[in-house]
């Protein structure tokens, strides 16, 4: 499998979304309650690669992937979420990315990771 970066993998998934799903994704991204939040002017009217850049610069690598997976699943775009997870498996960049709907295969993040809002315990599925 070709090596890819977090941003490139996110761009490829966003490129696969139809226009309506892409707009719904951007709307969900703006409406996230967790911090850091993304403002309307960072996504409104932006191209897909620009939104991917906003995700990576706002949340940094692994967390950008986790946020993207969460948003795709909230929108019931599970096939696209799986494509993103698969694109990063064995790529040049990897991190523990929750593959289950709850965020971890155990259903709960580990201690310190839970406080920071991400990550899974060591027995979780990861990329």
From TrEMBL:
Protein name per UniProt: Pyrin domain-containing protein
Pfam families given in the database record: PYRIN
Bias-annotated ranges (Basic and acidic residues): 110-127
Gene3D superfamilies in the cross-refs: Death Domain, Fas
Region of interest (Disordered), ranges: 102-127
Record InterPro entries: DAPIN, DEATH-like_dom_sf
Domain (Pyrin) ranges: 1-90
């Amino acid at each position: 499998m070709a090596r890819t970066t977090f941003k490139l993998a996110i761009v490829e998934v966003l490129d696969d979304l139809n226009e309506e799903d892409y707009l719904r994704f951007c709307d969900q991204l703006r409406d996230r309650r967790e911090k850091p939040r993304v403002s309307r002017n960072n996504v409104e009217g932006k191209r897909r690669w620009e939104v991917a850049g906003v995700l990576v610069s706002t949340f940094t690598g692994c967390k950008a992937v986790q946020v993207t997976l969460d948003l795709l699943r909230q929108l019931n775009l599970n096939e696209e979420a799986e494509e993103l997870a698969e694109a990063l498996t064995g790529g040049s960049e990897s991190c523990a990315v929750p593959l289950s709907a709850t965020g971890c295969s155990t259903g709960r993040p580990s201690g310190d990771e839970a406080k920071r809002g991400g990550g899974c315990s060591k027995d979780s599925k990861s990329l």
